[in-house]
Write a structure and sequence with these properties.
Elements lengths: L4 E3 L6 E3 L2 H10 L7 E5 L4 E9 L4 E5 L4 E2 L5 E8 L5 H12 L3 E5 L14 H16 L6 E6 L1 H5 L6 E4 L6 E2 H14 L8 E6 L7 H8 L5 E2 L7 H18 L4 E2 L1
Parallel strand pairs: 1-3, 7-8, 7-12, 7-14, 8-9, 10-12, 11-13
Antiparallel strand pairs: 2-5, 3-4, 4-5, 4-6
Helix pairs in contact: 2-3, 2-7, 5-7
Length: 254
């Protein structure tokens, strides 16, 4: 059984666990004083530690050296419309577990849910990303970017190669990424060439102006033969990208 993991940032030799992490240690896992755990900072650093339980708080002391997981050479962003209700939480947790680097909520013309970072929503998304990283063992927390429209996204030069999905596309995402990797390997490495952003539209589909704008960037790709719900499409795109890049000899950064 793997040791319990707790998020602390910055990672120092000794300190107090955040309240939500302390609650999990005390009331969910019911850890004993001196029990071995792993402390991680969400940016690639982690270390073994001993937990010190108190009535309402929990502290830790590192019991071994801090190790740093090297950042893999590629980043994978999932830019997606927002599904209704708690399905957005499911989407976030799934792409985090599958190894996406960042999540960008899209505000599309036919979006049923229009994302906003106000009223504590951004904080809640970050907490979900931290909890997912703690549970699934990833060393780097899924980054949550500010919500934006497709036009705003296309104007962001830091998102590297943009790929968008459409149910009627003839090209396949897996093959597109294999070809992209072959072309990328043959070229001189550049910072922007190490980032892939996959765009997923709302269940009502991309609007005609959005499609025309996206087609100026690239032809669309499909994820399979069936129509997928947003959260399923996001998870499928992440898994397909992981498989394609690993087959080509690369692993997206987490």
């Amino acid at each position: 059984m793997s040791m319990p993991r707790f998020y602390v940032s910055p990672l120092v030799a000794a300190g107090e666990l955040p309240d939500d992490q302390a609650h999990h240690a005390r009331d969910v896992l019911r850890l004993d004083n001196g029990q071995s755990v792993i402390i991680f900072d969400g940016a690639g650093q982690s270390a073994p530690a001993r937990i010190i339980m108190e009535k309402k708080h929990a502290h830790y002391e590192l019991s071994g050296p801090i190790t740093v997981d090297p950042a893999p050479p590629y980043s994978l962003n999932i830019a997606t419309a927002v599904p209704k209700a708690d399905r957005s939480h499911q989407l976030l947790e799934q792409i985090s577990q599958l190894g996406a680097t960042a999540l960008i909520w899209l505000d599309c013309r036919y979006s049923v849910v229009h994302p906003s970072a106000e009223a504590g929503k951004m904080e809640k998304w970050v907490r979900l990303a931290i909890e997912s990283a703690r549970q699934c063992g990833r060393s780097r927390i899924l980054a949550i970017k500010e919500p934006q429209t497709p036009r705003q996204l296309l104007a962001n030069a830091g998102l590297g190669t943009l790929i968008w999905t459409h149910v009627d596309a003839t090209d396949d995402l897996f093959q597109r990424l294999i070809e992209w990797q072959r072309q990328n390997t043959a070229q001189v490495p550049r910072a922007e060439s190490s980032v892939i952003t996959i765009m997923i539209g709302p269940e009502g589909g991309w609007s005609q102006p959005e499609q025309e704008m996206l087609r100026q960037v690239a032809a669309p790709v499909r994820l399979g033969n069936n129509i997928l719900r947003i959260e399923t499409a996001a998870a499928a795109a992440t898994a397909i990208a992981q498989a394609a890049l690993r087959l080509a000899g690369s692993t997206p950064s987490q």
